[in-house]
From TrEMBL, chains A, B:
Coiled coil: none annotated. Transmembrane segments: none annotated. It comes from the Bacteria. The keyword Cytoplasm does not apply. This is 3-isopropylmalate dehydrogenase. Its cofactor is Mn(2+); Mg(2+). InterPro entries: ICDH/IPMDH, IsoCit/isopropylmalate_DH_CS, IsoPropMal-DH-like_dom. Keywords: Manganese, Metal-binding, NAD, Oxidoreductase. Residues 9-345 form the Isopropylmalate dehydrogenase-like domain. NCBIfam families: PRK03437.1.
Length: 350, 350
């Protein structure tokens, strides 16, 4: 059945620093793409204020009530969080990870593509077009661990990576399905020669789930080896699946080889559809360049495309990507403000 | 007091795969460099057989008795260990990590230098010349952790990163001393916004030890950010200090940007001098190319130079480095066998 008008409720959370400059451009382009598509889609935007300023004023990061109210939305459009004035970890744990864990963002999806016209720091980049499926809710990100005899020469601090069959399977299954729909190649990355407990769980899950996807060719790489191939032979990858920490590291590296984190979008996906997914640039708040309208909003704009696709608006998503590709292909080093880049991409939508 | 003749006792452990091809070249060049130097130095070599073949024949990796007898030597010259026929982790834990942990190899030292004439996969490599001081005896490498409800949908596997003030301080102090002797820049790399327990220990140790090195400028980078700079701006680094797992990943990446792991040497250093240090290429056993005399022995040869320097034979070390640099500068793509590369470098010593 087809409804005459679709209304999507989006939580908008610009956060800190350049988050406040790029998110408006992401929304500008998304709105324009919907308008031009002629689809009967309405966006209802609700602002959420999180980040350093609020933390300093109120001591709050993201309250439990807000986390609950976020569940009412169809998706979350996020900017960035973090500021040197706030102790390391407070906003990360209190906002970003609180949402990823609380809303069951099992898959942190990070496409890596070298667009035409984009300069890679690699000497001879081939065709780079892969996606990383990073597990999003466990591993070294749980905060599990602690320290004893703190601040003495006898201090011991532990950090526990927690891995469950349930959590790993959610990510691995998603990755297999993506590989099946793409070029049928899945690389799983771990360090199972050293981290034997978690590594062997990952291996057994990949073997088990793989039986359901006989067409997908699977190979394994150690994380350290993967970083080498990422710079010498990135065209080998189609879909990569890996744990939370390795995924964090590898996707920043992947962004670097495909022209920089100014272009890298991501989706934190609740794969069961039991809570809204979140879309964000993989870059951070970049306090050093914030407030100057010099940040590149492309990653936020592409995050808007990922969100559109997630909401089923494939035409809208495709139109945004096409407009971004066209803009990238013609960048010639001329300085444009953050808003000018957004305007230019919006204008290409017709 | 000066002794007329110095005898160094070296444990030689080629291991698996190309380890058996590169170690003889490393020794060939080292012996020649000593000969040419005119220094009254004698090497006494003792072979140790470890690796896949022995494991299959006897079930043994490296026995406790052998670990004890290794202590009698002045240094260990290692090749590589690992073979697909042996379950992942067995040789790593049973040989490599057994030595690193048992002999207190607090510092895993990994120089990264882009030599003249070497092609980097980077488009515009600047001057790359830094060393990574990777903590070598703890972090995610302890094997601590386990799994419950193994092989069921309710499985939970943990991997515990263990960090002690004692262990971190050993590595950090070594890194500060190296920075002091080099360009007085130390970058410490962690992920303390997420791994708060271990991260904060690292931060406090760096702050405390840093007070003894007021001339060294210290900065912090998240591991993910560091991988970006490693490809976009590697000339920023002088000395990097980081934990065992991050160091594993970053040094393979560093090797890639400086021309490949065929060139990257390392030393596993007992900084207190209570047990012998170990020198090895950072590459593995490469079973796919083993036995064909096509492996590049340069990393083993440079590991020989690191060993010479560690034994106080600075002239010998410098001579090897110079010979390697000269060979690298003139490589023109002509195929040479592993032994031919060793011969060519040995010949340059005069
Ligand atoms: C800000 C930080 C908590 C986050 C992470 O480590 O996941 C960021 O690096 C990312 O990749 O989204
Ligand atoms: C073989 C493996 C145990 C080892 C490590 O992870 O340390 C290797 O990758 C290295 O870097 O020396």
């Amino acid at each position: 059945s087809y409804s005459v008008s679709m209304k999507f409720s989006i939580a908008v959370m610009p956060g800190d620093g350049i988050g406040n400059e790029v998110v408006p451009e992401g929304l500008k382009v998304l709105k324009r793409a919907i308008e031009v598509s002629g689809e009967p889609v309405e966006l209802e935007l609700t602002d959420y204020k999180v980040g350093a300023q609020r933390y300093h004023e109120t001591g709050e990061t993201l309250t439990d009530e807000e986390l609950e109210s976020l569940r009412e939305h169809d998706a979350i459009f996020f900017g960035a969080c973090g500021d040197p004035s706030v102790p390391s970890g407070v906003l990360e744990r209190g906002v970003i990870l609180k949402m990823r864990f609380g809303l069951g963002h099992a898959v942190n999806l990070r496409p890596s593509k070298l667009f035409a016209g984009v300069t890679s720091p690699l000497a001879e980049p081939g065709k780079i077009d892969f996606v990383v499926v990073r597990e999003g809710t466990e591993g070294s990100y749980t905060g599990s661990g602690g320290s004893v005899r703190t601040d003495t020469p006898q201090e011991v601090a532990t950090e526990v990576s927690v891995n469950t069959w349930y959590g790993v399977e959610r990510a691995v299954r998603d990755a297999f399905a993506r590989a099946q729909a793409r070029n049928k190649k899945l690389t799983y990355v771990h360090k199972h020669n050293v981290m034997v407990h978690a590594g062997h769980l990952w291996r057994r899950v990949v073997e088990k789930v793989g039986q359901e996807f006989p067409e997908v060719a699977v190979n394994y790489e150690h994380t350290d080896a993967c970083t080498i191939y990422m710079v010498t032979n990135p065209e080998r990858y189609d879909v990569i699946v890996t744990d939370n920490l390795f995924g964090d590291i590898l996707t920043d590296l992947a962004a670097a080889v495909t022209g920089g984190i100014g272009l890298a979008a991501s989706g934190n996906l609740n794969v069961e559809g039991t809570a809204p997914s979140l879309f964000e640039p993989i870059h951070g708040s970049a306090p050093d360049i914030a407030g100057q309208q010099i940040a590149d909003p492309t990653a936020s704009i592409l995050s808007g495309a990922l969100m559109a696709s997630h909401l089923g608006l494939e035409t809208v998503a495709k139109a945004i990507e096409t407009a971004v590709e066209a803009d990238l292909a013609e960048r010639d080093g001329t300085k444009r403000s953050t808003a000018e880049v957004g305007d230019a991409i919006a204008a290409r939508l017709g």
